[in-house]
Amino acid sequence: MSSSDPQPPIAFSKIGREIQSPVIVDLMARALANPELLSLAAGFTDNAVLPRELVARFASELTQAGLADEPLQYGQNQGRARLRELSCEVIASHPGEQAVAFDPSNMFITNGSQQALYLAVQALCDPGDIVLVEEPSYFVCLEMLKGLGLRPIGIPCDDAGAIIPEAMAALLRDLDAAGERARVKAVYLVSYFCNPSSRSLEADEKRAVAKVLLDAGYIVPVMEDAAYRELFFEEAHPAASIISMLEFAPFPKLYLGTYTKPFATGLKVGYGYCTHSEWLGKILGIKGHQDFGSAHFNQALIERVLEEGLYEGHLAGIRKHYARKAQVLEGELLAGGLKELGWRWETPKGGLIIWARAPIGSDLRMESEFCQRCIEQGVLYVPGDLCFSSGEPWHCARLASGALPEDRLIEAAQRFVAVAKQM
Ligand SMILES: Cc1ncc(COP(=O)(O)O)c(C=O)c1O
Questions:
Q1: Atom 6 of ligand 1 has which residue's CA nearest to it?
Q2: Whole-angstrom Cα distance, residue 44 to residue 352?
Q3: Tens digit of pLDDT for each residue in 138-153?
Q4: CA–CA separation, 256 and 97 (whole Å)
Q5: 190 lines ligand 1 (CB under 6 A)
Q6: CATH number of the domain residue 38 falls in
Q7: 33, 226, 230, 275: least CB-packed within 10 angstroms?
Q8: What is the CATH number of the domain that holds 87?
Q9: Does ligand 1 have an atom closer than 6 angstroms to the CB of 195?
Q10: Is 254 part of any domain?
Q11: Confidence label for 419 from pLDDT (cuts 50, 70 and 90)
């Protein structure tokens, strides 16, 4: 039977009935399919700084016969023990962290941090439940939450993405008044060089979040996504993670990290660090059903890189590279006169993104004339409305500087500015 033959209907599940192909999948497919379409949208890293030599060297070592803990076999559901230890050390090496706070038994290795996030949410939430998110927030997470039938609700933030504590307290009061308290299952923060705002949460800002939650009696799980923490340009962001901050002691916590963006997205190895044993048990139970362990070979490879002390050297190289890419993109936006047209953005200090805001009232959504003209001109961006739980406002664009080589990045920025000028 071929796929063009008539197919009998299937009675799908609620998720199956409602699922739509995520925007991220479409954006990546477009970027891969048409090299002439310059993508400032897709979250790829730069091929020029992929760790080819390290991967080749350790792939060769790891394929020798007779290695203990054979990397070409299945591994443990929770991930390789040594990689879990080393991943704790990676987190503990950041400023402000209390090394003693990290226990490898709380660590689990996943198929990218996206899987850790998905498992954690699945363990916590039923359809209709609420997850509080920053505004703007990681659009793939927002889509994922909605796809599971959940309600992401934005924590009020200012134009640049800074959380407004009084407004957050008011939001919790409103949720109480609406009888929604029991439905608030988690808070999700992208604290380091956020995708998309590129800003990092200051320690005081995090303390304020903990205080607002505590004062309102919302002792709910807090998930801190640190996907870009290692990708700072000059200096690490000084705020400690929620794992090491005393103010978060009363909360169940999950810290999400990854080796995709900072090392190789194609290996797709990430991790979660969960301080709550029951929650962790549920996460691992679901993971057992889903894949009973992430790609063992890829884990072993990253473990070797860390074990040999080669990760930091690799990071030092790519930090300079991505700092330069961000400068190139920003430089071209400035040279093209985007600020004179009333656009604003903060110069990123890390990550792969510039969060550009057109004058209020502009419409940059996927279906907007602006977006269609960009596609006609051969440049893609992520419309910012996707990064807001309510789908508004419409005047923001997420521009990624990671993937394109410099000359094409310049060309993409020029095409983007040209459309902004026409509009
Ligand atoms: C904020 C954020 N979190 C998590 C992820 C997931 O990354 P991965 O699954 O590749 O580790 C991404 C990827 O773009 C991201 O931007």
A1: 114
A2: 9
A3: 999 999 999 999 999 9
A4: 15
A5: yes
A6: 3.90.1150.10
A7: 33
A8: 3.40.640.10
A9: yes
A10: yes
A11: very high
